[in-house]
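Rotation project, supervised by the postdoc (A.L.). Task for the rotation student: set up a whole-complex structure prediction and record inputs and outputs verbatim in this book. Inputs entered:
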Amino acid sequence: MAFIYRSLMHRMIAPTFTLRHLGDRCLSLDFGDTILAETGLICLAVAEKIREARLSGVSDVVPSYTSVAVHYEADPQTGVPNFRTLSEGLTALIQAGISPAERASRTIEIPVCYGGEHGPDLGEVARVTGLSEQDVIQMHCAPGSMVFMLGFAPGHPYIGIHDPLFALPRREVPRTVVPAGSVAIANRQSTIYPTRLPGGWHILGATPLKLFDLTRPQPTLLLPGDHIRFVPISSAEFDQLAAQHSQGQV
Amino acid sequence: MSMIVLKPGMLSTFQDLGRFGQQHLGVSVAGAMDQRAHRLANVLVGNDPALATLEITLIGPTLRFTKPCCLALCGADLSATLNGQPLVLNRPIVVRAKDELSFGVRQHGTRAYLAVHGGFALEPVLGSTSTYLRSAMGGWHGRALRRDDEIPLLRPLKNKGLEDLAMDLWSLKIYLPAALSEPRQTYVRLIKGQQWDEFTPESCAALLTEPYRISPDSERMGYRLQGASLLMTTPRQMISEGTTFGTIQVPAGGQPIILMADRQTTGGYPKMAYVASVDLPRLAQVGPGDIVSFKAISLEQAQALDLTRAKAFATLADALQPVRNLLLNH
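Outputs recorded:
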């Protein structure tokens, strides 16, 4: 993973892509059909470039693993943008080149209390992967993870791309309630549940951090493109941090 | 100077044009389900279409106004009355202090929109006053109205000259352009998506010819349809990507779901088609148990229809300049 980031350093590229409509007010730029770190990085860089271009009529730019959705609405006076004009504009923008590795990106440490009541699926994941629980934790904490997209709920991240050993399908029967802060894996990705939600991913642990908080100037803890470092903490440290967060000290 | 909730109704929430610019953070757009009726209500009382209206669902609330104001009600006909007298839809109406607005039997439609001249005093959250119930965000304290809520109005009217204003507004001729009148056709137009051809020919034919019933668990997030199953020739897993208002997605069971205003920002089901924006208001006005059928149009046609409606709104806003003048000079 780290190697991929370095190899793209300082390189302007004009990635190939296809365009498709997602209805009459949104289009998608598609950069591949497989979940790959390299494709995800391209999507992040393209999304950022489009947002910085502040194109008239464009309201939202939503990167995902392999595509970037661009939401737009025509100006009633001029009739643009429409699918054709926006496609042309975006194509010119991307062909001018993007540099996926030169994005300024933050590294965010996520303290996680693994196993026990916070991580009911740690034992099962260890069994299925043939690893010890300690090895599962160590592998989950390995550097190189990144937020590729936010979706499903406000502040809900999709973090990847983990070791192939974590290529576990989702649970056959999803839980109807997963507690806020739960850190879970599936399909070589992690997520962190911002609030109590239903969910089918395998829960390894929980973080006391608040993923979404409207009282903060930037309500989401994470942004697409953030590097993530999971850090194991004890149950006592979890309680201490959780108490600090609920009192607004952090 | 407020609107007091005597009865909350089934689901009454404040909605505007939507919370845009936050979808990459996972924050849903929300906003009025029927943008046509929402905009119309606003423009009829001289407001910017971006102001919040009260979206009223099936069973309306009972509301009392403590000061005179000018309101307009558009969308569903839920037998609205003002102090017991039938209230005319699609017109600016002057109400007096202590007047009571209430609702009765559903005549047609599902959602009515109440706009008040000057707007309701609501705190924007992430740039919008739309209520998003799942995250308890926006609108009135992030929730639907409850009994005894008192929502302040930003621009109540003065008592002086009120009767003259009421007469002047009432005597104004207001013509709705054809593109803005109640949608009459019985079908909903859609645009085929890229994955259309991955569905079996029988499925493609079914969606364009068979009737689909709106299931009882349909709501602001999505409409579940019941009808002929839609199946992919070779089912495959999709990678999650951005979603839109009107996306017709098809889970493995084959019964389609249309994503509506409170949709999640991303989704990973196969997407067969997209409802043309111009027909989303019609879809917003059908309810559980109603039947819909679909007709395919091209992307270019859909964009042309959307633009025609947008231009009609701009024309109507110009034509209603006398309404704005009367209200602003009062």
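Student's summary: Chain B has two domains: 2-174+314-329, 187-297.
Supervisor addendum: Chain B touches chain A through 46 residues (CB under 8 Å).
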